[in-house]
Design goal:
This protein is an alpha/beta fold and 704 residues long. The chain folds into four domains: 2-136 and 339-365, Quinone Oxidoreductase, Chain A, domain 1 (Alpha-Beta Complex); 150-287, 3-Layer(aba) Sandwich (Rossmann fold); 375-504, NAD(P)-binding Rossmann-like Domain (Rossmann fold, 3-Layer(aba) Sandwich); 509-703, 2-Layer Sandwich (Dihydrodipicolinate Reductase, domain 2). It has 23 helices and 34 strands. The strands form six sheets. The protein has a nine-stranded mixed β-sheet, covered by helices on one side. Residues 390-507 form the Gfo/Idh/MocA-like oxidoreductase N-terminal domain.
Length: 704
């Protein structure tokens, strides 16, 4: 299928060929018939993509500070690599989609195959959309009209926040696509509407809809006009749908309001607010968030958990339905807003010169008769007779920034890369010359030529993919964690014992150059040691998936397991008991501030400090080892200082990376060898991670 994307690095807008998304639980697969181009929003994204690096930096000063902080802690080259990796990830364009449901995921009961629906899907021939972002289209509403559903919902949410009453005077600043729809909805709500815009054509359309529309370029003072129109009272409210960097708009909006008037921002403007403008009249100001309640809420959007209608009357989905109803009963007429209708293959007529476009609403028309495919060939390669042929499940940040660059250096035989949506895997396949991109991971498992499967997906899918891969008779490399709970771990152990294939887990710290040197200096005498391992992990917002115990398993199981494995490597022994204390009076199970005490079979004690509340200016990782009147201190994988050891002090080249195990893994798989880390060590480390969480609940030692 074809999809429009923006290349943030090169600045090109591309019609990309990618696999059709794989339908998943809680979502529907839609075959697109129409999409609406939101010229305001999409123009900003396209122009940002075309900007040079300096211009991009000026537009995002907060990101520049993050980059500078990363340089201080991680070094220049890793930071540059990280920035370029982000820019290599394409941006899907579009969020106003209409089409027909062609597949329904598990748990979806309100849609059936053949339903016509509107959604926030991208400009693509097929889109996979969670059920709470999809709404059925009434029979008397055309696909073209329904394409305005999401745009209409953005305006409607601004209106709901303003809470206008019948007869009030409301000003709409900016009569672009959202502004015109907003003004018409306000009029349908019984309001007297004034609209301002500098585009004569948009003003004319607004006037034709019965809106009092003014072009300030003709010399009209906006504030004085509103005062005159309202007999000196002022507007009851202002909705700003304009896009302009000037601070004048927010100032004018406050000055044209009556006492205790309301201002709602839907667009993007300068926000250097004058206190006096708002203070004297006690003006209220609020920013509207997209389509309505539920937006950016993982529970609502991705997990499909609706808000009770008695407590949240208008969610984003219910706003979608309200707009479709307005289109159905004629209170919203979008036909005059359509400037052009363009076939998808001629997309460049819209995106080629968006900066100078005078269009209001552009409709992309889809008429694909191609049979949908879930696997596409990106690079012609033959793998017949080769050993160590690899398939990768997961095409996220770790795969692009860490795994694939290393595999490329090793000239590895990568036949497949899979992602559920198909776009990220295709982008990576092109970047790293991978033969095939697929949205169906089972294509990898069913291919007899594939020897090794690498799994780099979200944590909650690791166990499922590991078990299925072992059952398919293929060796596995899975990023940590191996599993999220004891039940999954036991299922993996059972599958592993029945299979002849090998299993490795990406506990990578033990393979870092300085870790190898530390191990060599410590020797193999199996004497007890004291180890202090501190990970200054940094703050991650609570809504990020790693904190979700069902998806990410929390940061202790999901990331602190690296240090449990590293301590096990230095101790050269098995964990026999775990005790964990988390910060806070009543710490939560998904804590990211905790100290874990590990007791080893040979008498070694290790303390793993995992902190999410430290400064990013301080080293991210630090290891101290005390043994036989000797001490070694490793700082951020860049410096090793020793006391009592001969020839121990050294520095590590950051660009050597922490992932030498990939080379060893591939070579071992080519030769039919055993996994890098012994299976009992993998299981022991995993159990220690689980025990740490259990000890938090029980507040005591957990014997393993």
């Amino acid at each position: 299928m074809k999809q429009i994307i923006q290349d943030l690095k090169k600045g090109d807008t591309i019609l990309e060929e990618i696999p059709v998304p794989n339908v998943k639980a809680g979502a529907v697969l839609i075959k697109t018939t129409r999409t609406l181009v939101s010229l305001g929003t999409e123009r900003m994204l396209v122009e940002f993509g075309k900007a040079n690096f300096i211009q991009k930096a000026k537009q995002q000063p907060d990101k520049v500070k993050m980059v500078l902080d990363k340089v201080k802690t991680d070094g220049l080259k890793p930071t540059i690599d990280s920035v370029f990796n982000k820019l290599n990830q394409p941006l899907p364009l579009g969020y106003c989609n209409v089409g027909e449901v062609v597949a329904v995921g598990k748990g979806v009961t309100e849609f059936t195959i053949g339903d016509r629906v509107a959604s926030n899907g991208n400009h693509a021939e097929y889109v996979l959309v969670p059920k709470n972002l999809v709404a059925k289209i009434p029979d008397n509403v055309t696909d073209e009209q329904a394409a305005f559903t999401v745009i209409g919902s953005i305006g409607l949410q601004g209106i709901r926040l303003l809470n206008p009453t019948f007869g009030e005077t409301i000003v709409v600043v900016g009569l672009g696509l959202i502004g015109l729809v907003t003004a018409e909805l306000l009029k349908a709500n019984g309001c007297k509407v004034i609209g301002f815009d500098f585009d004569a054509e948009k003003v004319a359309i607004a006037k034709a809809k019965g809106i009092t529309a003014i072009n300030p370029a003709e010399g009209t003072d906006q504030v004085k006009f509103v005062e005159s129109f309202t007999n000196g009272v002022g507007a009851d409210g202002v909705i700003i749908t304009a896009s302009n960097k000037s601070n004048e708009i927010i100032s004018q909006s406050a000055r044209m309001c009556r006492k205790r008037g309301r201002v709602v921002l839907v667009g993007v403007i300068g926000l250097d607010i004058s206190r006096a403008d708002f203070y004297e009249k006690e003006i209220s100001f609020q920013v509207s968030c997209s389509y309505g309640p539920g937006r950016y809420d993982e529970e609502y959007e991705q997990k499909g958990n609706d808000y009770p209608i008695g407590f949240v009357r208008w969610t984003e989905k219910r706003n979608f339905e309200a707009i479709l109803n307005a289109l159905s009963n004629g209170s919203l007429d979008v036909a005059p807003l359509i400037t052009e209708r363009i076939p998808l293959k001629e997309y460049d007529k819209i995106y080629g010169d968006m900066g100078n476009s005078k269009s209001i609403a552009s409709i992309l028309v889809y008429d694909s008769t191609e049979k949908p495919v879930k696997t596409i060939t990106v690079t012609d390669k033959s793998f017949k007779g080769k050993k160590g042929v690899i398939g990768i499940i997961g095409a996220g940040n770790f795969t692009s920034s860490t795994l694939m660059p290393q595999l490329k250096k090793l000239n590895a035989n990568v036949k497949y890369i899979a992602s559920s949506g198909g776009l990220s895997s295709t982008t990576m396949a092109k970047r790293f010359a991978i033969a095939n991109s697929t949205s169906d991971y089972k294509e990898i498992l069913n291919d007899q030529e594939t020897d090794l499967v690498m799994i780099t997906t979200k944590h909650n899918s690791h166990a499922k993919f590991v078990i299925e891969t072992l059952e398919a008779g293929k060796s596995v490399f899975v990023e940590k964690p191996l599993a999220l709970n004891h039940e999954e771990l036991n299922q993996i152990i059972e599958a592993y014992t029945k299979s002849d294939a090998s299993l490795s887990v990406g506990f990578n710290r033990r393979f870092a150059p300085l870790a190898l040197k530390m191990k060599k200096l410590l020797g193999n005498d199996n004497t007890p040691k004291n180890i202090i391992a501190t990970m200054n992990a940094g703050y991650i917002p609570k809504e990020v998936w790693v904190h979700d115990m069902e998806v990410g398993g929390g940061r202790i199981i999901g990331e602190a397991c690296h240090y449990i494995d590293l301590c096990t490597y230095f101790a050269d022994s098995k964990v026999v008991a775990v005790c964990m204390n988390a910060m806070g009076v009543n710490p939560q199970e998904n804590t990211d501030n905790a100290s874990i005490l590990l007791k080893y079979e040979n008498g070694t004690n290790a303390v793993v400090n995992y902190f999410g509340n430290g400064s990013k200016g301080y080293s991210k990782e630090r290891i101290e080892v005390y043994s036989q009147e000797r001490t070694m201190i490793m700082d951020n994988w860049r410096k090793l200082k020793t006391y009592g050891f001969k020839g121990g002090n050294s520095k590590s080249k950051q660009d050597k990376g922490h992932y030498n195990q990939f080379e060893a893994l591939i070579n071992q798989q080519k030769n039919g060898g055993a996994p890098i880390i012994p299976f009992d060590v993998i299981v022991n480390t995993t159990k220690a991670s689980f025990a740490a969480i259990e000890s938090l609940k029980q507040g005591k030692w957990i014997e393993i």
